Task: inverse folding
């Protein structure tokens, strides 16, 4: 049974983007919670994936075998670019 409570949307900054044959992928950093989320090009509903852009998205549960939660229904605002961002160093296996 699915919950009738909608998942809250989060706001973060696109910290990294890698172009690929399938459109690309990247990472979004949410300063308020210090969490990192993985994003695929196919999950972006508007905007261009430019690092430093503000992204509003719906968190998706972590897929089995992966470390990071994913960002879905991502709307990127390319009019607001973050010029500096203090992203903590994430080590593989650390949470």
Result:
């Amino acid at each position: 049974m699915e919950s009738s409570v909608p998942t809250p949307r989060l706001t973060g900054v696109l910290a990294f983007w890698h172009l690929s044959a399938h459109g690309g992928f990247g990472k979004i950093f949410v300063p308020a919670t210090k969490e990192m989320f993985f994003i695929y090009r196919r999950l972006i509903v508007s905007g261009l994936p430019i690092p430093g852009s503000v992204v509003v998205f719906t968190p998706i549960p972590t897929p089995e075998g992966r470390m990071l939660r994913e960002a879905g229904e991502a709307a990127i605002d390319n009019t607001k670019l973050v010029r500096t961002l203090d992203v903590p160093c994430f080590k593989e296996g650390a949470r």
The radius of gyration is 13 Å. The chain has a mean pLDDT of 86.
